[in-house]
Amino acid sequence: MKITGVETIYLRQADVKTQCDSGQDALIVKVTTDEGITGIGEVDSNPLGAKGVIDGPFSHTTAAGLAGLILGEDPFETEKIWHKMYRGNIYGGRRGVAIHAMSGIDLALWDIKGKALGLPIWKLLGGGFHRRIRTYASTLFGPTPAATAEIGRRLVDQGFTAVKFGWDPMGRDRETDRALVREARCGLGPQADLMIDAGLVWDAKTAIQRANDFAEHDIFWLEEPLRPDDYDGYRKLSAATPVRIAAGEEESNRLSFLELMDRGGIDVVQVDLTRCGGFTEAMKIAALAWDRGLPVANHGFTTYINVTAALHWLNAIPNALICEFVTEEETQLREAVTRQKPRAKDGYLDIPQEPGLGIDLDEEAIARLRVT
Length: 372
Prior knowledge:
three-stranded antiparallel sheet; alpha/beta; 2 domains; TIM Barrel
């Protein structure tokens, strides 16, 4: 089997709000083969930047468009192809958008392998740890503490046993921050787990103060309160509070995750399959975390392609903690892109059993949302 084509599809909903919701647009990757099998993947990044990395022409041997590098390759050779993409774009590809772009291709290649063999990806990865996995509802804070409490009540009524609130208006001042967490806990009640995603808003001293403030509300973790490059700040924060510190969605390969784990001393390693280098790199990151006694969770605030990929990966590793499942209700694109619509039941998501990723594009929706 040979790769015959790579297509990048930029999708964007009509109404894009100024908020931290990366599910308002998307970059989908299709990889086709000479045996008629097509794999799909997704990139969560700056979509047009990642599209350029994939579609761009050959410049020289260390700066080449990824699509051109992999044409004619055997899609089963995922490790070889990963290193060919990395080496062939090493000037611009050691971190960031080029690794993100590689992620979409890698997901699509694993989808092809699973479809060709009639097996789900988690089985190809050697997994089988779960039949279902606990999930948490992931959403943005309400515009006020009272609105946040109402969102929490609604999500608990839907059966979720864990909820994460994130980003604006957190970080405006201490009183607002404390009120948001207090009301989030009131809305969830005493039993559900509460995660807080601060959204990169503080320095280390302020984060320590807020973690101590939030501890009385029994939060499950405090996520990304610092700039992603402030590894020394993460070390100070993790050492100063009993609250779990979670981070990782900004990291883009195992070397940067090592900085976060070893220098930053975080407690929960968050890996986005559409940013870290796909399944091929995510398995290595999970193994490094396991060697350090650290649990991992996925990050994913985009489409159900990302969620489905995460379920395969979490089922293939021994240190999976929980799965992120976006419940932000203002995003129409997320619900439209795929024919299958995963749904949590009693706070759990079922592990896919179909070949490959086990999820298909809704081509009518793709045509409607596509930006040419």
